[in-house]
Design goal:
The complex is a heterodimer of chains A (294) and B (166).
Chain A lengths: L4 H11 L9 H19 L47 H10 L5 H8 L5 E8 L2 E7 L5 E8 L7 E6 L9 E6 L12 E9 L6 E6 L4 E5 L4 E9 L19 E7 L5 E6 L26
Antiparallel strand pairs in A: 1-2, 2-3, 3-4, 5-6, 6-9, 7-8, 7-10, 10-11
Chain B lengths: L2 H26 L2 H24 L3 H18 L4 E2 L21 H7 L3 H13 L3 H8 L3 H26 L1
Classes of the chains: A alpha+beta (294), B mainly alpha (166).
């Protein structure tokens, strides 16, 4: 027995009968248009550098400094003008760019910075991209800031409540490694971007990437950041719209380790799990409420 | 941003957003997630608008973004790999929020991913076998077999569910 196409259509329509009202159309359009109008204004001054295909940079660098509790005034009001290393922002630049990223909720950013200069808990860079895990000076929030010196119009920051402790998740960005404005159909690199706040017991995280490489990164009091940029596996290319085959994953497995180097949680890989090692749910992502309400 | 592009894009969104939302809901089984997916797709579509619009492939492009993001989510719930789905709460296992879903959507969530995609594209969106094959990068024969199995499985799942509820 089978379901007829007509029955499928009818049942699908029935399922939509309880459709909640969508957000106003004007909201959707304002978000999309607003983002890109801003992008273009800033893009004129950006350096459209090429992607360094060979770059694979993982790991974390602790740059933390204490918050000074000075409130908004402690955050630079304008963009710093120098950098110690082209493409990789220094801490002052980083925080400025995190605060002013164009793809983020300005209310969240304001709240995050309102208690003083945030702590940069973990940061990683690959080519022009940087991910940073930040903690607000008052400890109420943490944030994943993503910046790209070659495409500052894409800078953004997600703000989370630091007390969040619901469930396990693994939120990362994986996709093509070429700049957004490049021809995605001819892109031959991929990127994975990640920052997270985990239990402080998690000292290291190891990934098996989509190209087969393994890398292990150090955390800082449970904060991690990763930027990975590499060639796509041989014979794997996106289609003309820049969509990768479903079979490709930016990474295939992840394992958490404690300070002794013992695995304490894992997921993914050909076996799905490591024998005797709990899944990631044992060590949840600490911040599952990204919306900081006004 | 040219006025023409804005107008074209706005017209497209006004005309097709509901359809994209319904499509996304069938794939992911959550209205909140569907809204996030559609918003993500619209942002990407806006960036790609000139080249996609030139080919008249706007809707197919948006659907592909939605399909890909939904698959990333459902394939490995522990591993979200999609750009900026802010506010995307943790999905429960299929059927965990059945009170908020309709039966077909619960049943769809239990299908293998390719079956789910093919049956929704074929029989909700209304694509032909050839169009579905092109959109998913499959052979026409594979589309037919996935669709057929999906309909069989849906019949079984819903018959079982209806039997329980009697």
């Amino acid at each position: 027995m089978t379901m007829s196409p007509d029955e499928f259509q009818q049942r699908y329509a029935d399922a939509l009968a309880h459709e909640p009202a969508p957000a106003p159309l004007e909201h959707d359009l304002a978000v999309v248009r607003g983002r890109h109008q801003l992008r273009r204004r800033r893009f004129a001054a950006a350096t459209a550098g090429g992607v360094a295909v060979v770059a694979i940079v993982g790991g974390s660098l602790t740059l933390g400094k204490g918050g000074d509790g000075k409130g908004d005034d402690s955050v630079p009001a304008g963009p710093p003008t120098s950098s110690s290393s082209p493409g990789v922002p220094d801490e002052t630049q980083l925080l400025y760019q995190c605060r002013t990223g164009e793809l983020q909720d300005p209310t969240n950013a304001r709240r995050f910075f309102s208690s003083g200069t945030p702590l940069v808990k973990s940061v990683a860079s690959a080519s022009s991209r940087t991910s940073a895990a930040l903690e607000s000076a008052d400890g109420k929030y943490w944030a994943w800031c993503r910046i790209d010196t070659a495409a500052p119009e894409t800078n953004e920051m997600d703000v989370y409540l630091a007390r969040g402790d619901r469930g396990a998740t693994f939120f990362s960005y994986g996709g093509l490694g070429c700049p957004e404005h490049a021809d995605q159909g001819n892109c031959s690199t991929f990127v994975m971007r990640w920052a997270e706040r985990l239990s402080p017991r998690v000292a290291q995280v190891e990934f098996v990437m989509g190209d087969g490489e393994s890398l292990r990164i150090e955390g800082n009091e449970g904060y991690f950041a990763l930027e990975y940029l590499a060639d796509l596996p041989r014979n794997l290319r996106p289609d003309r719209d820049g969509v990768l085959p479903d079979s490709f994953n930016a990474f295939d497995a992840v394992t958490y380790f404690d300070a002794n180097g013992d695995p304490i949680a894992a997921q993914g890989g050909s076996e799905g799990r490591l024998p005797g090692v709990p899944s990631l749910g044992r060590y949840p992502f600490l911040g599952t409420q990204p919306r900081v309400t006004t | 941003v040219s006025r023409g592009r804005r107008v074209e894009f706005t017209d497209f969104v006004a005309a097709r957003r509901a359809q994209l939302r319904h499509f996304a809901y069938g794939l992911c089984g959550s209205w909140d997630a569907a809204d996030d997916l559609v918003q993500t797709a619209l942002v990407k579509l806006y960036v790609a608008w000139p080249r996609v619009h030139k080919r008249g492939a706007e809707e197919a492009y948006a659907r592909r973004i939605i399909t890909r993001a939904a698959i990333d989510e459902s394939r490995r719930p522990w591993r979200r790999e999609s750009p900026g789905l802010e506010g995307f709460d943790h999905p429960g296992p299929p059927g965990s929020d059945a009170d908020d879903r309709q039966d077909l959507v619960v049943a769809l969530s239990q299908l293998p991913l390719m079956q789910r995609k093919t049956v929704v594209l074929r029989h909700w969106i209304g694509l032909s076998v050839t169009e579905t094959a092109v959109e998913l990068g499959l052979s026409e024969g594979t589309v037919k077999s996935h669709t057929s199995r999906a309909l069989e499985r849906l019949h079984t799942l819903m018959s079982t569910e209806e039997g329980r509820s009697r």
